[in-house]
Give the backbone structure.
Amino acid sequence: MSSNLFLKKINILFFLCVLVLSASVSFSMEDQEAAILTDAPSVPPPITRSNVAKIIIHLEVKEIQGRLADGVQYTFWTFGGKVPGKFIRIREGDFVEFHLDNHPSNKMPHNIDLHAVTGQGGGAAASLTAPGHSSVFSFKALNPGLYVYHCATAPVGMHVGNGMYGLILVEPKGGLPKVDHEYYVMQGDFYTKGPNGQQGLQPFSMEKAIQEKPEYVVFNGSVGAVTGDKALTAKVGETVRLYIGNGGPNLISSFHVIGEIFDQVWAEGNTNQISHNVQTTLVPAGGSAIVQFQVNVPGTYILVDHSLTRAFNKGALGQLKVTGDEDKLIYSGKVSDEVYLPEGTGIRVVEQRSQAVPAAKTKVERIERGRTVFTTNCMACHQANGEGIPHAFPPLAKSDFLNSDKIRTIKAVTGGLQGKIVINGQEYNGVMPAWTLSDEDVANVLTYIYNSWGNSGKEVTPAEVKSHATKRN
Ligand SMILES: [Cu+2]
């Protein structure tokens, strides 16, 4: 080695030491802390300190296989093991030392572009990391706000499309107002090779991504990630704040909560400006919004992208369950229900895209698949436990109409039903649409119904549906 080169190395080492020293000079040891990172829908606790600090963040990239929808698996690329990535919370003025760790079992290089970073690529170039490596860079959080971060490795659309995005909140100096609940919800669009519902492990489709035609649009990484026992919760009188992100890669979200009005919106994640009394707020791809409201009456409030077929057919739907006392002055609930059938109203046909689900091989499989058909098509009227709604939608639970005649039931579902009928001694006079579900789907949903809520336990096969279905046109 030439002595010249040796000297150069010493120089570089010295320079690095000075850098490290000068970076740590303005922070005492007390001011250094490791960031608390959380998985959606959780949010790290509010920052209470009034000084700036040095924050150490370790974010690990993991490529994992997981559930995208019932029976549908997908290989997600993640910041921290879940989609969306870990929620990061820091304070305006903080100095962040960021470690991006690319797990050795991963196959791809990755990096991170944080929209909260001022500097080349938002950190992307400095953080490009091969599997089994770890990169470090640092930045000062100059601007407060709620920011998206994402992978920016080529092909970027594919890395983001596989789930590589999350949110970083840079709290303004004075903090944000106190609330009872803070939740993290992030939308993303997914492009699978198979059509929506096709079972098994689905590869990413670059073609559909380029055409911007996703098969799934979801909150928090999968269909149903924020519903049922994973729904958000609150009690009457409490305030709820949602940190909403949109990872894209392509769609813009018209974020809305059915049955609520946003008392406050920090549009586009801008913590300096509040709008009041907003119904729907736009969340751009690669953007965010903070929405806040008080819940006044109990109920299940539905989070949607108000581009509604995304919500009801592709997955962009979540729930906020609010418990507590009714206030009939604010919301009465149903006061009456009378039949309204103007002249000329006939049976409506509901055309359903048949899901590319393989044929059920056993009765148990048929019941399982039928549950999904029921939830998406029948539950709205006949209710979750088949109990129906008095005077409007007849019960399917212990229904004598249903249990006494299988063929008549097949005809009713495939051809629709209207006019007076008596079920368990109760008279109904409504209209049920005709369903253009596949024979397989009708067999599955009826088998599910026959094997639930105290019904007779019969099985209905696709062959029976085929021979007894009401023929139309
Ligand atoms: Cu990546």
Q: What stands out?
A: Residues 13-25 have pLDDT under 50 and may be disordered. The pocket of copper (II) ion is lined by residues 77, 110, 151, 153, 159, 164 (CB under 6 Å). The first strand starts at residue 32 and ends at 34.
